[in-house]
Amino acid sequence: MKLSIAVLLTGLCGTMHAWSQTIPEQTAADETQLEHYVAHTDNVPEDDHHWQQLQVYTRHKINLNTAGIAVLRSLQLVSPLQLEQFIRYRRQMGKLLSVYELQAIPGFDAQLISKLLPYVRAGNELEPDYSWKDYIKKGENTLLWRYGRQIEKSRGYLHTDTTTPHYMGSPDKLLLRYRYNLTHYISWGIVMEKDAGEAFLKGAQQHGFDFYSMHLFISKYRCVKALAIGDFTVNMGQGLLNWQSLAFGKGAAVMSVKREGDLLKPYASAGEYNFFRGLGITIAHRQLSATAFVSGRQLDGSITGNSGYHRTAAETAKQGTLSQFTAGGNISVEGATGKLGFNFIQHHFSTPVQKGHAPYQLFAFEGNNLSGVSTDYEITWRNMHFFGEAAISNNGRTAILSSLLISAGAHADLVLLHRRYDKGYHALYADAFAEFYKPVNEEGLYTGISVKLNSRLRVNAYADHFIFPWLQYRAAAPASGSDHMIAMTYTPDKQTEFFLRYSRVVKEENSTDPQRFIPALTTVRKQSWRLQYKLQPAVGLTIKSRIEVNNYIRKDNREEGWLLFQEMLYQFQRTPLQLYVRYTRFMTDGSKNTLYTITTGMLYEYALSRLSGEGHQFQCRVRWKCAKRTTCWFRYELILYANVDHIGNGWEEVNGRKKSALQCQIQHLF
């Protein structure tokens, strides 16, 4: 009977053959998560570990019949409820005969399966038992080189007969990465990076690159679940105490609110701040696991606003002036339906950290020592999944997050999340679900629903209401707000997607009344409408368009903006060449309604654009597989602004109305 079901599902999925040929593009709902992240943190992420991992899975697919929960969770594509349904199905029905059998599992629709297919398979072989020689010989080597620069020189690079440039280096940005990886077992490598403006083989950088990172990571060797030497990240609970991997917040993927990932991970990215350097180990025996780690790092004189740039004499003078020692650990008990963990971390700084003197910084951290403990949990019971974390810092202030995911039927999922973060709670590398970019001075309730009205139409919506009990940067009194979003995704066939979204954010900020010494709060509203579609009119050709309109209203001040882009991605059939072009037209009245778009960049790159003012943007990218295991990328971007005589400000100011950039990248596997 099971064989008949598998054959039937394979026949029904005959049109899905293209899914296994290429890595699928992000859905419109997924794009909103990343764009929301950049809009709220004003920071383009540099942690590309997840993309590296997925790329490896395309060449060494996960065996659905032998993979454990942790491996499937590492994909970050399956929700806890869907993962529970999969494990239950595999336990009751036995091994999968085909990957298309996933359609028989409740909660696995065509869109989810299309995301999974590039990374999974249904094999009959047993889990391999590798020796130390296998660890060293059976892996894959990856060498990646990336170069980029802004073509127009900004003010920091200009000089005269009597003055030298403000920046000590060239506008070139360089990245070189080597990594050896045997999936799930061992990884080692080195990352070298130079940012634009930093010196190279001269001045303060006599040793070449400004940033070096090395790691050795071993997994699944006897009782050692994970061993990290060198650079690594630590991810505890739901991010209240420590979370250093990339994690998103609100967006059209309304059910993606849970932080999931391995506690220890190797660090092989170019970001210069959010990681540890030292030793970490996880020992596991049956249902019990214990983790301990130590780290020693030299930071740039401050734990806030650490950009990692060393372009000028002032920036270089701060380099390595603050020593940070960190130690921590975790004990977890995991069963078939739940998990309970206890976490601890402590930081010591060589020089006392000083907080600012502004009123909103009254409860900020200061001193030499910062520590905290937390407990996290997750429980699955029938169609419900409970999870959360409670943490306390060494000043006695607390942070609590609790959430519930419910599968309300075959076509509806619900989420309820409550958080309460004290105004004096401190955690250095915290990254939990919040309206603010870190879990402090906030209390809120988030509710979301995802309903599949039929096989082609899905509706996602959320409502988030929050209050800030203490002052904020732009609020001189306790404030409150709300955030609402509704999105519809229509997929009439496997090659077509229509996406419609409306969002509305209401907050309180300081008024601009010059007559008041202490500004009163005023209500600000921001609304956004987005229509996006993607289709494949011919083999190898994908077309995507977006229309977005937004407005920002503050008393009698109103700023409006709009964006329109048209893009084309074409994969040549007889040549290993892919061409991507996009044209964008945009207009905003000011910086309050800046527009954000994610584009198809180069492998492992988060290519995001912040667009404000009025202008045109043109992007072109070529991917060429010039040899069996060598791939090249070339990318060019041009922005033309209207009615301006310079772009940017400070040392990044560019004369004229044009700004362009060029990038190239080569990856070789051996």
Description:
- The protein has 670 residues and is mainly beta.
- Among the domains are: 1-127, no CATH class; 453-535, no CATH class; 539-670.
- The chain has 8 helices and 31 strands.
- The chain has a 24-stranded antiparallel beta barrel.
- A hairpin with a 4-residue loop joins strand 14 (384-393) and strand 15.
- It is globular and about 75 Å long.
Features:
670 residues; mainly beta; two-stranded parallel sheet; 11% helix
Quick one: overall form? globular
- The mean pLDDT is 90
Count of helices? 8
Briefly note the structural class of the backbone.
Answer: mainly beta
Low-pLDDT ranges:
1-23
**What's the count of strands?**
31
Measure the end-to-end span: 44 Å
User: Rg from C-alpha positions?
Assistant: 25 Å
Strand content: over 45%
Largest sheet at a glance? 24 strands, antiparallel, barrel
> Roughly how much helix do the residues carry, as a percent range?
10-25%
